Amino acid sequence: MEGKHLSWFVAIVLGVLIFKMHIYEAFGEQDEDIPHNEVRNWALKFGVDLWEFGRQFTKMNEIKNRFKDNDIEVKRKDGIILLRELAAEVKNFMDFKRNAVMRLMDSAEQAALSELDGQGANAESPLSQQHYDARRINEYNADGKLADGARHMDIRFMRRFERLPVNLSLSSILVPHGVDLDEADVKSALQWSAHLDPLFQNNLEQDPALSWQYFGSSSGFLRRFPGTAWPPEGSKGSKLIHDFRTHNWFVQAASSPKDIMILLDASSSMSEKSFDLAMATAFNILDTLGEDDYVNLITFSEVVKSPVPCFKDRMVRATPDNVQEIKSAVKAIKLQDTANFTAGLEYAFSLLHKYNQSGAGSQCNQAIMLITESTSESHKEIIKQYNWPHMPVRIFTYLIGKDSGSRSNLHEMACSNKGFFVQINDYEEARRKVIDYALVMARPMIMYQADHPVHWSPVFLAGKSGGLGRDSEYQRRLVTTVSTPVFDRRNHSVRVANLLGVVGTDVPIEEIRKVIPQHKLGPNGYSFIVDNNGRVLYHPDLRPLSDGNQYIDQLKPKYASVDVTELELPETEVGNDHEVVEMNKNLLNEMRGDMIRPKEGETEFTVLNHYDDAKRVSTRTHRYFYGPIEDTPFTLAIVLPEKYGSHELVSQQEIRHSRNNITEYFKGDNWRVHPDWVYCEYNSVSDLEKERENSGEYSSRDQEPSFGSPEEQVLHFLSRAGRPGWKWMSVRPKSPQPHHSLHSGSNGNSPSSSHYGSQHLNAQSSRKAEPYYCDRTLFQSLVRDAMVTDGLDRNTTSTSNGKEDKQQGYQKFVVATSFVATRSGLLRWIDHIKRAEDSPEPHFSEDNVRAMDTSWYKRAIDQHTVEPDSFVYSVPFGSGYAIKSNATLVTASHAIFVEHRGHKAPAGVVGLQFQHDSLAKHFINITSACTGVTGCKRTCASDNLDCYVLDNSGFVIISEEMEHTGKFFGQIDGTIMDSLVQDRIYKRVTVNDYQGICSDSDNPYTAAGGILKPNRMGSWFLQHLVALSAAWISLLPASLRAWPQDEYTYENEDVVFVENNYSDEYEPFENDYNLPVDQEMDEFFTTADVEYTTPPPKQHKPHAGPRFAPDPQNARRCDLRTDLYMLQPERLNQGGQNNPLKGKLTNCHVSGCERPFSVQKIPHSNLILLVVDTLCPCGSKQLDIEPMEEAGVVGACSTRRQSQEQESRRRPKKCINYHPEEIEIQQCGRGSTLLKTSATVIVGHLLMVIVTFVLTNA
């Protein structure tokens, strides 16, 4: 038995020794390990072959020479002069929109004054029947006859108006839920606002770039021009729209900035149903606030609580993110204890006073919104202590349910503090009645009747784009709205201050960008606009959250709010010099501060640029030039790349002096122009109609006269330019003189009738009737580029199948498409392989028509600064394939720079798309052979060597395993990738995405995400018993005499009023929002009863695995981060030597073996050759470039968001929050309606008697 064990032992020892011998023998061979000289030669040959092939096939030198053969100039750009020129264009554009709105306001006020004073609300007037209800437009029965109550409207499809069928002479009426068009005040407003239709039409004639114009009546209907049916064709929405009176463009135009404290009763006296309704009321108030407002919500029971921990003792900006944070936190509130109104009011008054005295917050309106189901007193003492006699804080009270006993108390609280009382009985009222507070806050502004503040809303996703591009129909456009209030100028028998409504017009961002031509900024240059709060109006990296089609279905905008510091990402890598890192951050913050002031300036710093859905990253030094857009809250910035953005190629073809017919250079269908650039365009539909009538062309009455494509439009103007008498019309129409309101009569009442009538005539005569506009520089550059690139397909050396002649010494590359894209937006291509008609893949031209915006164009321009004689190669991500089915194409692009008098500027990019398998075969042929005289033992064909071609972002271009194509190499061998980073061949760059999208289905404040409330049947009964008792007590005669019988309360109590010291002009920038609240003011702040007991947000754990975008209903903004990689080519070219870098993985296996690898730069490319020895069985980890949500605290309480809360802002110019005679207005909400009739009194008495009898005999 022992002998058997001994033999087993000997066998095991011998086995281990043999294994060791094999390992050592293998690594004995590693004396030669990897044939580094061969690696260098393979890379050299592969790179040179590709370069020579691409250079000749794309005819880059011929194109460059053709440019040089003509008159050219490489001109230096002056950034500040260019900025001023573009800012003036944007100002002119915005002046048109603002003046259109001001004319609407003027006409609306005059029409209301004339109509209501002259006729009253005369329902018999013919005008009262003239409105077109959008729900009933062109509604026909099955027999083809117009349905009862419907009206016919002639309509035609118009691109400019979201591709909807519209009528350019009439407006239509859109109605939210709960608005009855037969109510007296609604009928009256419908009647006088019908007079706006001629002015709507006149505005559009003056400014054909105008989008939707509208008048939103305070009574609830929306008059929109041009007229169209609702819901739009293809919409899944109902016939009712979302109530526009809660939207930013309406509320913010109607009221000055404000600090709002919402007090939400979270005591046990609240029933579950009531608290749901109270919460809905609070949320609807929050939804009316904007970026100029400050807010906080506290709940009160026995103690006061701040649902959001980091908002405790603070007011925060009412950004969408902060509002969403408050909502999420409130949903986790537990109802408990009794209501301590005194503690809640003391807290709110103290905090508002603290902000007012310290110069923080909005420094304008202040208000408390009290939401409760019942209160036993009016809390006079605490209000008197904090708010009388000046009443700097308005109080708005919201009674949830029908507690008649609490009604009088809450009514008194609101009426005696310049507020308003509202009773909320259902969710519809919670939505509809919250707007009353804004109408009350508008009173001082209306009473002065002098200032009509112009408000620009944040951007939002609207309907379909109006562009000519083939894909525009599937794109939605970004829009901002400019609006201003409309005042009631009538003299009333009692003192009132009525807001008739708000007028506005939508301003598509795509129209603003038209006046900032991309060709003036050049490749990789861009522009952006920032508002007074540091939020971008547009930016090339702005990605608004999806609205789930709520605008298309309900006309409800979802506003975007992204700070410029969340889009411009300064380079902040740890490996960099710490001083440089801090300098980049500081320069960005300084620029933001200057832009908000606003102040003209320039700066320069290095930023991160990400491409291809944040899978690639690069660094680039930018030069920023910024300055104000006068008479707006905006500042414009233009950004030019430091290395090549300061020069531009000037090469134009003067059309009128051309000997040849210039349309000859635009033959065929293998060319496109950038669909978003303006080469030439007609200023209005009527101008185009006239031109077509003159030329005998037919146009359909149902369709807008338009062009089928941008190329058709270019060809049209090319033919026009060849006619005698052609004029360029290169100056855009100038806006009329700015609107100056003449409302400065002695009593400030009504404008003069002559002003009302002459305003339109003056504006109309100030604009020249130019039928079209042409960008002469761009148009003539396009013609020159067409001449330079024309005919390249007629003398190509390739055969029809795209295979290069073998006699030139090149392996066969199967080219599918070759192309050239130029600085003027021209794209030409040649298809070398006939494309299958049933191919599911889009043609090259479909995805790349906006060539200058594509990754291959941008990267080629940047690559020129790294290695001028090179191509940038890429393959689609994750495009690995099996040998038998290959459709993967490699894209290669090269930038053409033209030199003149020692300066170079980009002229365009040439490129190829060729089949990946032909590239892979050529690579295998090269790397399977020995190039040296002495031969080599191992090649890439050997089993123990793996060879890869990686691009400058670490993605696999070629591998022996075809399924690796397009994968990130770190997912294949993360250990080697880590080693490449440690050897500084690649640089790991952390990229933060502050516009990430995560799921909001899990409320971070509670695992369930619901509202946690105990079930208290006894509490419910007790509550209603108390309510009945209060109702019975309220039937006393004294109360009958005190309560009004009409809709409004008119108090006769004399209140001593001392004018407050609020100024209607804001302080300069230095005394701004972001000043920290003075610590010395803490003595004013009552915190004895304040307690923070809401559970803090859960610590976030990063999600593992691929991320999926949540549906829009559950989407929220979040901070994502990912590690991306950049090749460091200078590391591979040290000392001008192109030798491979040798590396080894050590200690990666228990045997102690090593894993060598070799890295060689492939010349004339953005590629490296990586050869790895596979003998040592090292383990390999995986690296991921999938974005992950930042770990730790999420949302508003994160460190980044907290620091962002302290960033500077600039207040609007005007704050109108006080008028000495406002106290005379007695309308402060509806009082009790229980006592309108004697029957109600009788029923109340009977009910109380029955309840008393039951309780007595129980």
Automatic annotation (TrEMBL):
Q: Where is the composition biased (Low complexity)?
A: 743-761
**GO MF annotations for this entry?**
metal ion binding; voltage-gated calcium channel activity
List, alphabetically, the GO terms of the cellular component aspect. voltage-gated calcium channel complex
Q: How does it sit in the membrane?
A: Single-pass type I membrane protein
In terms of SMART domains, this protein maps to:
VWA
Q: Return the annotated region ranges for Disordered.
A: 691-711, 728-762, 1091-1113
Q: Which compartments does it reside in?
A: Membrane
Which chain positions lie within coiled-coil regions? none
CDD domains per the record? PDC2_MCP_like, vWA_VGCC_like
Keyword Transport belongs to the record = yes
From the UniProt annotation, give the residues forming the signal peptide: 1-28
PROSITE patterns named among the record's database cross-references: VWFA (PS50234)
Q: From start to end residue, where is composition biased (Basic and acidic residues)?
A: 691-704
**UniProt KW keywords:** Calcium, Calcium channel, Calcium transport, Disulfide bond, Glycoprotein, Ion channel, Ion transport, Membrane, Metal-binding, Signal, Transmembrane, Transmembrane helix, Transport, Voltage-gated channel
Q: Start and end of every VWFA domain?
A: 259-438
Pfam families per the UniProt record, alphabetical: VGCC_alpha2, VWA, VWA_N
Classification via InterPro entries: Ca_channel_alpha-2/delta, VDCC_a2/dsu, VWA_N, VWF_A, vWFA_dom_sf
Protein's recorded name: VWFA domain-containing protein
* Originating organism: Drosophila willistoni
